[in-house]
Amino acid sequence: MTEARIGSDRKALLRLLRLLTRGPAAMTPRGDGVQAEIETADGTVQLVRLAVATDAAARGLLRREGGRVALTEEGRAHLRRAAASADESYLAQHADLVAATVEVGDTRQRVRLNRAESPLGSLSRLKGRDGAPFLPEEAIAAGERLAADFTRGQLQPRVTASWEPRLSSRGKGERGGMAELTDSAVAARLAVNRATEAMGPELAGVALDVCCFMKGLETVERERQWPARSAKLLLRAALMALARHYAPPAPRRRPATQHWGAEDYRPEIHHQF
């Protein structure tokens, strides 16, 4: 069998299995003995090669009972694997995947990030005059974390460009607001509040615009009437401050007080009466 025929049969099999996700269907062989007509309960009709249907039944992907066929659990699993494989193939061609470490609860996990979809994706490729990345890795990670908390806190549909970190605007006794949020969403909103406070009002706005509202730097400068290329510098300052908030540097230890003296040295104690 040629590769073209194998590929054609594979596509025909997937079309058949997808059709059967609508429910059991009637299968009527045609007079030529090569094809069969599949008709679902909603009247959808599809032609399929009998060999494809027979092979699918032999592999346990569908079940044949008299003149009817139905999808099996193995058939559903086959569709899920095919969809996952297609997603991986698409990502390999179009995505810009990088490995990263994220915090999930109290644990750290390795994940893949698609920089093509990240609000900081294009900025992560910028270089400084010395050739080093303009935004250090910890700054990128801080921006991604802010965006994740912002999304998990369900903030984006309810805010504007003049967003202020308030947890609720509803009066006492009214439905909605914080009362309808999950514990995870509430925690995420609190995390965003703390992050904006750590950056300060002068810097928090540009970080929210770029990381959470996914605005370009030129858009930020135009809306805020800033000079050209100023948003880039302020964003870097904001994300570096945010990175220090998420991972505070260890406090410096003061050197222990030492005294040089003989082995039998004893400090003098002065009593005041």
Blueprint of the fold:
Blueprint: H1 3-20, E1 25-29, E2 35-40, E3 45-49, H2 50-58, E4 62-65, E5 68-71, H3 73-94, E6 97-104, E7 107-114, H4 137-152, H5 183-199, H6 201-212, H7 217-224, H8 230-246
Helix pairs in contact: 4-5, 4-6, 4-8, 5-6, 5-8, 6-8
Describe the structure.
- The structure is a single chain.
- 44% of the residues lie in helices and 15% in strands.
- The strands form two sheets. A five-stranded antiparallel β-sheet has the order 3-2-1-5-4. A two-stranded antiparallel sheet has the order 6-7.
- The protein has two domains: 3-89; 115-169 and 176-246, no CATH class.
- Strand 6 (97-104) and strand 7 form a beta hairpin.
- Helix 6 packs across helix 8.
- The protein has 273 residues and is an alpha+beta fold.
- The protein has eight helices and seven strands.
Number of helices: 8
Oligomer: single chain
H and E string: HEEEHEEHEEHHHHH
Which stretches are low in confidence, meaning pLDDT under 50 for 5 or more residues running?
157-176
Question: How many structural units, i.e. domains?
Answer: 2
Which radius of gyration do the C-alpha atoms yield?
31 Å
Q: Residue-averaged pLDDT, rounded?
A: 76
The rough form would be described as elongated
Summary?
Helix content is about 45%, strand content about 15%.
